[in-house]
Structures are given as C-alpha cells and as structure tokens.
Amino acid sequence: MERFCNDVVPGSFRSLTDVDYTKLCKLCMHYIGVYGNPVMIAQLLHNVGAISTETLQTLREQCEAPYDSRQELAPMNAGIYLYHHKPSGCGLVIHWPERGSFADNASSDKKKNMINFQRLVLFLWGSLNVGMHMTQT
Q1: Where in the sequence is the domain holding 74, given as residue range(s)?
Q2: pTM for this predicted structure
C-alpha cells in the first residue's frame, strides 16, 4: 500500500495512520479487472510489459504442469494483485486463482470458491453500473 500510494502521489503515505487521502482522492485512475486462466493472465502481463519473458516462461511452466492436489507449489499465491502503469494512470486489478481451480479434477471447494468469486464480481459490476447510471442522469 505504501509503495502504491507514494508511487501515484509522492509523500502521500507516511504511515498506516498518516495517509494524505485528500491528494489521493483527486486522482483519476482507470483500472481493468482481470481474472480467469492464469496462463492467459501471465501472457497479458507480458504483453503490457509488467513481467519479463523469463517470468512469463516460469509462470507458464508452473501453471501448465499437471495439477496434483498434494503439491501446492504455486508460482504466485492466490489473491488480488495490482499493476499500475504510472505514466498513463491506468492499470490492472488481477485475481490470481488458486492452483488447480481450472483443472478438470479440481476439488469441489475450489470450484465453489471460483463460483462465489464470479458471483461477487457480477454483483460488484452491477452495483458500479447502477452507480454510474445514477451519476450520469
């Protein structure tokens, strides 16, 4: 958080309790949400210059290796990541899925997590759409 805040507004984050939200809120940043197949996400990150060719290859190899539920060595931990392109003020909010989420033999827990995540995304998108429609009128 500190790195992101100070990257977009230098000096805006001094500590967890001392953040200059006034300056941060004046920024207009545009982000696109990305989720899905991790190999395709890695390719997108490479295409926008966020990762090197070597990193792309490592992610591909580890993501495409046969999934074994006993082996949880993921190239990246499952979670939400942020890529910010400072010159443009644009970026990506990336959901990196749990290893094996897209495998045919994925556990019911992992399938349920993905379904719940997709429902949440649709709910949030619907909320944003309503909010944007209301502010445009």
Answers
A1: 28-136
A2: 0.68
